[in-house]
Design goal:
The complex is a heterotrimer of chains A (about 350), B (about 300) and C (about 325).
Chain A (H helix, E strand, L loop, with lengths): L3 E10 L7 E11 L4 E5 L6 H8 L7 E10 L2 E2 L5 H7 L4 E4 L13 H11 L9 H14 L16 H13 L5 E5 L7 H18 L2 E6 L2 H7 L2 E6 L2 E7 H4 L12 H8 L8 E4 L27 H5 L5 E3 L2 E3 L2 H6 L2 H13 L1
Parallel strand pairs in A: 3-8, 3-9, 6-7, 7-8
Antiparallel strand pairs in A: 1-2, 1-4, 4-5, 9-10, 10-13, 12-13
Helix pairs in contact in A: 3-4, 4-5, 5-6
Chain B lengths: L2 E4 L22 H14 L1 H18 L1 H4 L30 H36 L3 H15 L2 H11 L5 H28 L2 H8 L4 H9 L4 H24 L10 H10 L8 H29 L7
Chain C lengths: L1 H27 L4 H11 L6 H11 L6 H13 L14 H36 L4 H14 L3 H15 L19 H38 L2 H8 L4 H19 L1 H19 L4 H10 L3 H29 L6
Helix pairs in contact in C: 1-13, 2-3, 5-6, 5-8, 5-11, 6-8, 7-8, 7-11, 8-10, 8-11, 9-10, 11-12, 11-13, 12-13
The chains are: A alpha/beta (about 350), B mainly alpha (about 300), C mainly alpha (about 325).
């Protein structure tokens, strides 16, 4: 059984009375135990909202309108209050975007660890001051931080250190799923690499399922095994990372036109001549629920059916993609015919 | 050597060329006011406040029509309790309290809104000047503001009013305004300082806009709800301050206001003569006026801070 | 410690500014307060000697003398607590008159402020946490309404209802007529009975400032990332509300303490007048009625100084609350 199975997730923002903005529309997502997956999209694509929805940390004016989020068999979308709180231990955790503000400014690091541990204490847990300190020190060591940080306050730490403390605090829950929302965006490039490496090491050592959310396609391709691309509130492509990366033997193989355009926006600085593309148009207005593919107005391949019917995620290449045109271009028999032709030779 | 050539994105079929987003383009003042009014009306607290304020304004405007008698005519038997002729009784001078209550709305509104407006104008001016240019001027204004904040309002007003030889409505307005500009000034100053560093201001300055234009066309419009909130808060405080001054006898006893009714009540020991309605009515009116202004202010808070909006 | 140093310097400078303001005010007012003052003293039966005239002039303005020398004399007088002679109480020094009244106000205002701050803050936390629900609306509307009550009006009403009609509390004063202040329990009890109504009036009308301010701060704080993160980490609701949200929301309230204290002091002036309470406010009331300038000036100084000291103490306490200023 997959660790996380989300079906039909709809998240709506209602900032003022009467205004409804559909940030995530009818989205399905499956995460296996031990996977390291990435979720990529531009600003407003809904990736952060989806990450928050999956960890049940949405706040007003955002609301989980409908959907089932089955975590290890339990529908956490239906949990509230104390039961939801308890489900977090050894469950699902979130590391937020800016470590700057994720820590309580008036409480020492040690006490913040203590708060988390005491909140999820089970009979038999060591809740003495020394016990808590030891466990906290261990968690800090896991993110390559020194134990003497425990007595400090958040404002005494640098941005990168605060981000790592956030990661350590999330790991105090001993979670099986960790969602990292833009963990390096607010940091400078050198620290970014260090934090990313720490995340990869932790994932490998502890074996939790990780979902890395970012707008930086390059970073996600480098760090993860599987990439999901989001556009206008829906997942439009879901491929193994290897498929989307250029290798010496073959170019990247995106299937959705949006992914293709995204890859075209990147340039290899080592090449002799570099062309940088862009995507014409702008993302759609999410307060209107229009039929058809959301990318159609900007898509060079768009046809009539694209404007009237939502394309479903269908198997394309090594993964899935939601595109009418591309799905049609690969008739299901072709693969078998080629195989048979190969056998006949 | 790397040559970068930008490929202009192909024009997607079926769509018009993209228009760059308007940045921080301010909507027309009318559209802005209409939207503000709609949001305010949508907020239950603000709506209640607007209604109450509306009633008080109507009473003030139509006092001559609504009042059964002249407020200053001393034709009635003094020290009467409520009766069929004088619904709220009479003062020690034989004046009808109910008529005074209705006419009194005028002074309370005038002084409250007037002093509030003056105080806000001073606050905005000083705040803009101080917040826009950090330096000596900013420090001096900041220090004066903090000083004015520390000195409690009523005692200062009392002293100022006591020093002035004669008292009229205008002295009251002046004294009240002089003692309540500081809170607004501090808020305006910090907001101007924040806005000053924003990109749209920097771009305006770089494109050669002159200082007054930058301040009045770029910064001020973005502080509208703050100015409105500050005005309402000042007006609220001014209403109370005016009543307090009148109550202490530091206003002009000849004016008809809710505060002077209470002054008369205190002078003639209305409590002990059973004229408690004479005390209840004007005080309640003051409380209602202040409450209505505060309620509207809740709505304005919600306008500028979406987190505070009601669902 | 830079913070403490800065606050101390600010305190000293503001104190100096208040003194100077007090010095300049009568000299800026139109008319000649000196002659008026001397006239009042004469009618109060005080002999107008040269020394008397000099003292009054130092207080209110010496004609034809340089401002600087006047300023010097003024400061010297302040330092030695020589505030001139009051017209209302010509037989004792102003310092003594104020000194008798000050403790009453300090206790009344002090206790009321602490109680109002505590209750108001807790109510504000509660309203902010339960924002949008009935509890919030009740607390918000209730405090708005009560906060709009003019203090003197509420005082009059309570006086009428609870003292005059029902006789539960005394009608006026700080202690029963005929008794002299002393340190006995019976006097303390008597004094407390007399201070209940003024204290309640003051507390009710100043509560709203704390409640609404705290509620606003709570709502803003609840939108902060660290609150979301705390909930994401599964901390209990009460922990988040108190240790993460309220604890941070408290800080702006403490910084704004000075403003609120000003409101309490202002209110106390009016309330003491209504209840004939023997404190500073009552004295100011008397001074104003009698146009007693020396007393007014001295009172203004004392009030401002007390507020500055209180604010300074709170500023120092703030260091305990916010680790970010402990350098």
């Amino acid at each position: 059984m997959a660790l996380l199975e989300a079906r039909g997730v709809n998240v709506v923002y209602e900032p003022t009375r009467g205004q409804r903005i559909w940030a995530v529309r009818e989205t399905d997502l499956v995460l296996e135990q031990g996977e390291f997956a990435g979720l990529v999209g531009e600003s407003g694509s809904g990736k952060t909202t989806l990450g928050y929805a999956l960890t049940r940390t949405l706040r007003p004016p955002a609301r989980l309108e409908s959907g089932v989020i089955s975590f290890d068999g339990t529908d956490i979308a239906a949990l509230h209050g104390e039961r939801l709180r308890r489900a977090r231990r050894n469950g699902f955790a979130l590391v937020m975007q800016s470590g700057m503000n994720a820590l309580n400014p008036v409480r020492s690091i040690a006490r913040q660890f203590g708060d988390v541990m005491k909140a999820h204490a089970r009979p038999g847990d060591d809740l003495s001051g020394a016990g808590l300190r030891d466990r906290a020190a261990g968690l800090l060591a896991g993110v390559h931080l020194d134990a003497d940080l425990l007595g400090r306050f958040p404002h005494e730490l640098s941005g990168g250190m605060r981000q790592r403390v956030s990661i350590a605090l999330a790991l105090a829950l001993d979670p099986r799923l960790v969602v990292f929302d833009e963990p390096t965006t607010a940091l400078d490039v050198i620290v970014q690499q260090a934090v990313l490496r720490t995340i990869k090491d932790l994932q490998r050592e502890r074996g939790f399922t990780a979902l890395l959310i970012s707008h930086d396609l390059g970073m996600v391709l480098e760090a993860t095994d599987r990439v999901m691309v989001m556009y206008a509130g829906r997942i439009v492509e879901d491929q193994p990372a290897g498929e989307l990366v250029a290798s010496p033997t073959r170019p990247p193989r995106p299937h959705h036109p949006y992914t293709e355009a995204l890859l075209g926006c990147y340039a290899d600085p080592r090449a002799d001549e570099v062309t940088v593309g862009g995507i014409p148009g702008s993302p759609p207005d999410l307060s209107l629920r229009q039929p058809g593919c959301a990318f159609a107005p900007r898509c060079p391949l768009a046809e009539d059916i694209c404007r009237t019917e939502d394309p479903p995620l269908t198997p394309l290449g090594a993964g899935l993609a939601a595109c009418h045109v591309r799905a049609r271009a690969v008739p299901p028999e072709t693969g078998r015919a080629q195989e048979e032709a190969g056998h006949a030779r | 050597m790397t040559v970068i050539s930008a490929v202009p994105p192909p024009h997607a079929p079926g769509t018009a060329p993209p228009v760059p987003a308007g940045g921080r383009a301010l909507p027309g003042p009318l559209r802005f006011a209409a939207r503000a009014a709609r949001t305010l009306w949508g907020d239950a607290k603000a709506r209640t406040g607007i209604i109450i304020l509306g009633v008080i304004v109507v009473v003030a405007v139509f006092a001559p029509q609504l009042a059964p008698h002249s407020p200053t005519a001393t034709t009635f038997t003094p020290y009467l309790g409520p009766n069929s002729v004088n619904w709220l009784g009479t003062t020690g001078n034989g004046q009808d309290v109910f008529s005074q209550l209705l006419y009194g709305a005028r002074v309370s509104l005038l002084v409250g809104l007037g002093a509030g407006a003056i105080a806000t104008a001073v606050a905005v001016t000083l705040g803009l000047i101080a917040g826009y240019r950090p330096g000596a001027v900013d420090e001096v204004i900041g220090f004066l503001t903090n000083l004015a904040l520390v000195i409690p309002g009523i005692p200062l007003m009392i002293i100022l009013a006591a020093y002035l030889a004669n008292h009229s409505v205008w002295t009251v307005v002046l004294v009240v305004a002089l003692t309540s500009w500081a809170t607004g000034a501090r808020v305006m100053r910090s907001q101007t300082a924040t806005l000053r560093t924003r990109d749209f201001v920097t771009s305006a300055v770089f494109s050669g806009e002159r200082l007054p234009r930058v301040v009045f066309r770029e910064i001020l419009p973005n502080m509208t709800s703050l100015v409105a909130a500050s005005f309402l808060a000042s007006a609220t405080a001014a209403v109370l301050a005016e009543a307090s001054l009148e109550f202490l006898g530091l206003g002009n006893p000849a004016t008809v206001s809710w505060g002077t009714i209470l002054y008369s009540a205190e002078q003639q020991n209305a409590m002990l003569t059973g004229q408690w309605l004479m005390v209840l009515a004007p005080g309640l009116a003051i409380a209602l006026l202040m409450t209505s202004l505060t309620l509207i202010n809740f709505g304005i808070d919600a306008l500028s801070n979406p987190r505070l909006r009601e669902k | 410690m830079r913070y403490v140093l800065r606050k101390t310097v600010l305190f000293v400078i503001t104190l100096w500014a208040a003194l100077t303001l007090n010095f300049l005010l009568p000299r800026l007012m139109p008319g000649s307060p000196v002659d008026a003052a001397l006239g009042k003293l004469a009618s109060a039966g005080v002999p107008i000697t040269n020394a008397e005239r000099q003292a009054v002039e130092i207080q209110l303005g010496v004609p034809n003398a340089s401002l600087i020398s006047q300023y010097g004399d003024y400061l010297r007088n302040i330092a030695t607590l020589r505030f001139g002679t009051s017209y209302s109480f010509p037989t004792q020094t102003v310092a003594r008159t104020i000194g008798t009244a000050l403790p009453w106000t300090l206790i009344l205002v002090g206790v009321t402020t602490i109680v109002a701050f505590a209750v108001g803050t807790l109510l504000g936390v509660y309203a902010g946490w339960r924002r949008g629900r009935l509890a919030d609306s009740t607390v918000t509307l209730g405090s708005t309404l009560f906060g709009s009550f003019p203090p003197f009006w509420l005082g009059l009403l309570l006086l009428y209802l609870l003292a005059f009609k029902l006789g539960w509390f005394p009608i006026k004063g700080g202690y029963s007529d005929g008794t002299t202040p002393n340190w006995s329990f019976s006097f303390a009890g008597d004094a407390i009975r007399h201070s209940v109504l003024p204290a309640v009036t003051l507390a009710v009308t100043t509560l709203s400032g704390w409640v609404l301010g705290m509620r606003n701060n709570m709502i803003n704080t609840l939108g902060e990332d660290y609150v979301t993160f705390a909930e994401a980490n599964g901390l209990r609701g009460r922990t988040v509300a108190l240790l993460y949200a309220a604890r941070n929301a408290l800080l702006p309230n403490v910084t704004a303490f000075g403003l609120q204290l000003g409101a309490v002091v202002s209110g106390s002036v009016l309330v003491e007048g209504v209840f004939s309470y023997p404190g500073i406010g009552g004295l100011l009331f008397t001074a104003v009625t009698n146009h007693d300038f020396p007393l007014m000036q001295a009172l203004f100084l004392v009030i401002t100084l007390s507020m500055l000291v209180a604010i300074f103490i709170v500023d120092l306490l703030y260091v305990r609350l916010d680790p970010r200023v402990r350098r």
